[in-house]
Amino acid sequence: MNAPDPMIRITTQRQILLEELSKAKNHPTACELYDMVRKRLPRIGLGTVYRNLELMAETGIILKLEVGGSQKRFDAEIEPHYHIRCSRCSKVENIEVDVIQDIVEAAAKKTSYNIIGHHIEFSGECPECLHRIKC
């Protein structure tokens, strides 16, 4: 992953987006972040939220997750890590496991590529959905 671009100016809107994204535990969509940010910036537009999220993702300040064909989600944690997505409710969470460096090294050796990133997504049913099924 590239280092965040030091040239991007952190405006008040971007700072509040970052703060709300950092507080969120469920990797929110742009619309969900819009609802969160509007509590602090009532006049902000949805287009402004989308543009700022895209810019911050392009410059490495945040991650944009395109998981399982669902809406794009965003993550304030930019260090390499994995995610798990509920196949029923589409919730996305971090998985606290070590990054599988052996696979990266094996892929680089096998292909002679300079591996700059990889994507592994786990899917399953979250505890809340499993509970609803049993009831």
Could you walk me through the main structural features you see in this protein, from its secondary elements to its overall organization?
The chain has 5 helices and 5 strands. It has 135 residues and is α+β, with helices and mostly antiparallel strands. Strands 4-3-5 form a 3-stranded mixed sheet, with no helix packed on it. A hairpin with a 5-residue loop joins strand 3 and strand 4. The chain is flat and about 50 Å long. The model has no long low-confidence stretch (mean pLDDT 88).
Notable features of this structure?
135 residues; alpha+beta; three-stranded mixed β-sheet; two-stranded antiparallel ribbon; flat
Instruction: Tell me the number of strands.
Output: 5
Question: What Rg, in angstroms, do the CA atoms define?
Answer: 17 Å
What summary fits the major beta sheet?
3 strands, mixed
> What is the overall silhouette?
flat
* Content of β-strand: 5-15%
Fraction of residues in H or I helices: 25-40%
Order of helices and strands: HHHEEEEHEH
As residue ranges, the low-confidence spans are none
| C-alpha end-to-end distance | 43 Å
Mean pLDDT: 88
**Number of DSSP helices?**
5
Q: Give the structural class.
A: alpha+beta
Question: What's the short story on this structure?
Answer:
It is built from five helices and five strands. The protein is of the alpha+beta class and 135 residues long. Strands 4-3-5 form a three-stranded mixed sheet, with no helix packed on it. Strands 1-2 form a two-stranded antiparallel sheet.
